[in-house]
Design a protein that fits this description.
Length: 399
């Protein structure tokens, strides 16, 4: 006897979850009362790490998910298919990105139907984005290794391949891209020891051109955008060692500046066009004045925060210590610290309520998101922003 499930694949872990129990309605029929995010001028700042398949829009969140056809007798995954879902800011419920009223979405074996609007075949991990009414993904051809920029309409009825942006040897997260107005800026780190390139994609012309290149060997990632400036962490290779720095590229002038250099930079987040926070491993939380390029240590690390990932929701800073325990303290507790802009801890949120909860993905003024593995498989889970400072706050599964 065979048992089939659908699930969400995050990073390198694969577990399975039931496909039942999801709200099944047309996306464009939903009442849309929520407007844009107040106070957040950098839409990438709510991400802890860009390693999760979630993107935000005015009305909700788009997620990339994976379905499997599994033979329980052999424990083998026979087929797979990727699909896009939508989580409403208003209701907190998940729906498939499919406008077909009669579509069953999945077959009896748990695999996404090829005829379903939510089906997007094969997608590179964490490559989902949203801009100006379109959902963008990077689809992958396992035979040709082509990586294609693809977009979907908000109800899933329109799928459009824009252009091939490059190739990749495997399904890893080599590519990262952000929007500046309606243009895309993209980097790939396939050859990490190669030169650093930043390319611009004109969506209307379907053209890609290099706007910045460096002969330095290394990689560029953690991209964020404020007005005309693109920020990122440059990881430069120098022989057997590496040098990290936070850079700023102005897409109007074409100038690339190094804001701060420290080999132990872990993460950063942007509060406003003048202020950036970054975290240095074993040192602590720094505030950087972008205009003067001067840094100040606002919170020294302690035993629980020697290495953290940062995020900002328009009100609070978040520090998650998910990688710290493996390197410094085996007895540490995986948790998120909610802070004010002076680095004072307001609350701590436990991440071990579920045995296999993963690092946090995203936070804004509505929700804090993570995923966890239960006996039902991997699921998105959240905390409402209004509960962020409550001492007894708990995680709730997306329905």
């Amino acid at each position: 006897m065979k048992k089939f499930m659908c699930g969400l694949l995050v990073m390198t872990s694969i577990l399975l979850t039931s496909c039942s129990g999801r709200e099944d309605v047309k996306v464009d029929n939903e009442t849309k009362e929520v407007t844009s995010t107040d106070g957040i001028i950098c839409k990438e700042s709510p991400y802890f790490m860009k390693t999760f398949g979630i993107a935000t829009s005015e009305e909700g969140y788009y997620t990339q998910n994976y379905s499997f056809e599994v033979d329980v007798d052999t424990n083998q995954i026979n087929e797979e298919g990727d699909y896009i879902a939508f989580i409403s800011k208003k209701t907190g419920k998940e729906i498939y990105l499919c406008s077909k009223l009669e579509c069953s979405h999945f077959n009896e074996k748990g695999k996404i139907l090829s005829s379903c609007n939510a089906n997007v075949k094969c997608v590179l991990p964490a490559s989902i984005n949203y801009n100006d009414g379109w959902v963008y993904i990077l689809t992958y051809n396992k035979n040709s290794y082509d990586v294609t920029l693809t977009r979907l309409s908000e109800d899933g009825s329109v799928h459009e391949d824009i252009m091939v942006v490059g190739q990749a040897p495997s399904m890893s997260g080599y590519y990262e891209y952000v929007f500046v107005n309606n243009d895309i800026y993209i980097v790939d780190n396939i050859e990490e020891t190669g030169n650093i390139y930043l390319d611009k994609i004109d969506i209307n012309k379907k053209e890609k051109n290099t706007v910045f290149s460096s002969e330095k060997e290394g990689s560029l990632g953690s991209l964020k955008v404020v007005k005309d400036n693109i920020f990122g962490i440059q990881n430069e290779k120098r022989g057997e060692s590496r040098k990290k720095s936070i850079i700023k590229y102005n897409n109007t002038t074409g100038e690339m500046d190094s804001l701060v250099a420290n080999d132990l930079i872990i993460s950063y987040t942007i509060v406003d066009e003048n202020t950036l926070y970054y975290y240095v491993e074993t040192e602590g939380l720094y505030r950087l004045d972008i205009n003067t390029n001067k840094s100040k240590l606002v919170r020294a690390c302690d035993e629980e925060t020697k290495s953290v990932h940062l995020a900002y929701d328009g009100t609070y800073l978040y520090m998650e210590n998910e990688i710290k325990g493996y390197r410094y303290n085996e007895n540490s507790i995986h948790q998120i610290f909610v802070c004010d802009l002076d680095g004072n801890i307001i609350n701590s949120i436990g991440m071990e309520e579920y045995e296999n909860i993963l690092p946090a993905a995203f936070c804004d003024e509505f929700y804090l998101f993570a995923t966890h593995y239960s006996h039902e498989g991997p699921q998105w889970t959240y905390i409402k922003h209004e509960d962020i400072t409550k001492k007894d706050v708990t995680w709730t599964n997306i329905e």
